[in-house]
Design a protein that fits this description.
7-stranded mixed sheet, 4-stranded antiparallel sheet
Length: about 120
Amino acid sequence: QVQLVESGGGLVQAGGSLRLSCAASGSTSGIDAMDWYRQAPGKQRELVASITRAGRTDHVDSLKGRFTISRDNAKNTVYLQMNTLKPEDTADYYCHARMSPRARGVLGEYEYWGQGTQVTVSS
């Protein structure tokens, strides 16, 4: 299996910055891509950014220029740099791993989720 542990959340004033980390362990060689999602109170979970094994990144249009996803392959860690934070960014942020077809067959799972880290932006 794969374990994902997020860290770096907290309380910050509007205009401030935070850097979230997601450390992966276990069968990490089976991960094809990793994502950051967020879920605000009373709302559905939404995709924030993605990074593939090849290093290609994607960010939702509304967050481009403020949020940046990156990785450190040696540490099996993915980051989300969040700048110029706004109150509407307040949410629980989750790390997500997508597994390769071969890994799915071995592990019996195609995705894994972290426990989440809370980000609160005050106005």
